[in-house]
Design goal:
The protein is α+β, with helices and mostly antiparallel strands and 360 residues long. Helix content is 28%, strand content 23%. The protein contains 10 helices and 16 strands. Strands 5-4-3-2-1-6 form a 6-stranded mixed sheet, sandwiched between helices. It is globular, with a radius of gyration of 20 Å. Bound molecules: adenosine-5'-diphosphate and magnesium ion.
Length: 360
């Protein structure tokens, strides 16, 4: 039996480049080489596709130093043409003999230019099956303002918000939200550009910070709730299934689950399962599947919630390509549900092949 050719796509142009590298290192380490022929493809911060070393160790965070794609690899491109049958080499010089068609792509990219439908659009054009959500769901989940409109249309409660565009006046609806508020880029991730504002005097600086990442920012009412996350994974026929949920508790000095707390400091604890009653856990899992379906997600997603003491549950966001290291929430929640990291990778690849490309 010939091995399946899997291209692992990582790095990318967004501010989450390094986190994508870390996720990719773990997936490269987990792919069973007896069954998969693995082609690691890095995307540099300026968007060049390069053949990368198959070396998971080089993609880890070491001494707070973040990994990045080595830009010196052979330049590649995937033409958006299904008759071209795979990758082409852009650089002159040595051409790897085995480069060409791939059976499936694992786009382990976070943030804009990767998790937002752009790469998914290219893969659709090229006719190459890929792991995870398609163009629409990827784009919708990347843009928090649009995501929240779809939540509202599906009757899913989410914190109130107002959109503030760069260079345009702050709409009066912002102050109606009441303090504190969270100010965030509409299209970013890993808590980049997010500020908690306790005093309106700090609003402009917070908006400027969010606008550094995205000219479209969101101001959101702060919800005093526990942060609960739930993984969703497509079953054999594509029907979404919810994982064991988890609680994220920030135990360091951070005011919220910010970038430092997420990746650098030993400042976060995860409770899997969370210390919640069965009824609440059941509601969280049902809402996770509802959110997944409301946004037309495919393959996998991590749905994040705020669970309040009075029993209210808000959906914060859906991540179509959640952090994917063995230490990340998504794989850990599935491990608690009995699906190991290598099994998770296998299931996602199988699901991508089952769906294929095109309207579905
Ligand atoms: N409305 C809110 N109420 C309370 N905390 C919030 C709110 N919005 C964001 N946060 C905090 O900021 C973190 C990151 O915000 P989030 O919207 O999830 O952005 P990202 O896509 O960068 O993860 C959350 O995990 C939470 O700790
Ligand atoms: Mg988040």
């Amino acid at each position: 039996m010939s091995r399946l050719r899997v291209a692992v796509l990582f790095g990318g142009r967004s501010s989450e480049h390094a986190i994508s590298c870390v996720s990719a290192g773990s997936v490269l380490a987990a792919l069973d080489r007896d069954r998969y022929d693995v082609l690691p493809i890095g995307i540099t911060p300026d968007g060049r596709w390069v053949l990368a070393a198959d070396d998971p160790a080089s993609l880890a965070i070491r001494d707070r130093a973040l990994p990045a794609v080595d830009p010196t690899g052979t330049g590649l491109a995937l033409p958006g043409d299904p008759t071209a049958k795979g990758l082409v080499v852009l650089d002159a010089g040595e051409v790897p003999a085995d480069l060409g068609a791939v059976d499936v792509v694992f786009p382990l990219l976070h943030g804009p230019y990767g998790e937002d439908g752009t790469v998914q659009g290219l893969l659709e054009l090229a006719g190459v099956p890929y792991v995870g959500s398609g163009v629409f769901a990827s784009a919708a989940c990347m843009d928090k303002a649009q995501m929240k409109r779809l939540f509202a249309a599906a009757g899913l409660p989410s914190p109130r918000y107002a959109v503030v565009r760069s260079g345009r006046p702050v709409p009066p609806a912002v102050r109606d939200l009441g303090l504190p508020v969270f100010v965030k880029p509409s299209r970013a991730g890993s808590s980049m550009g997010i500020t908690k504002v306790d005093d309106w005097a700090d609003l402009d600086a917070a908006l400027a910070e969010a606008h550094r990442h995205d000219p479209k920012a969101l101001v959101e009412e702060a919800v005093a709730g526990r942060e609960i996350e739930c993984g969703v994974l497509a079953g054999l026929d594509g029907t979404p299934e919810a994982s064991v949920p988890a609680e994220v508790r920030v135990t360091g000095g951070q005011a919220f689950y910010d970038f430092e707390a997420k990746y650098l400091d030993d400042a976060t604890e995860f409770d899997i399962p969370p210390d919640l009653d069965d009824e609440t856990v059941g509601r969280v899992r049902a809402l996770a599947v509802e959110a997944f379906e409301a946004l037309d997600c495919e393959g996998l997603a991590r749905v994040d919630f705020f669970v309040c003491a009075d029993g209210r549950i808000f959906v914060n966001e859906v991540n179509t390509m959640p952090g994917f290291t063995p230490a990340s929430m998504f794989p850990r929640m599935w491990a608690a549900a009995g699906v190991s990291y290598p099994q998770l990778v296998d299931r996602l690849i199988r699901d991508a092949l089952r769906r294929g490309t095109g309207l579905r």
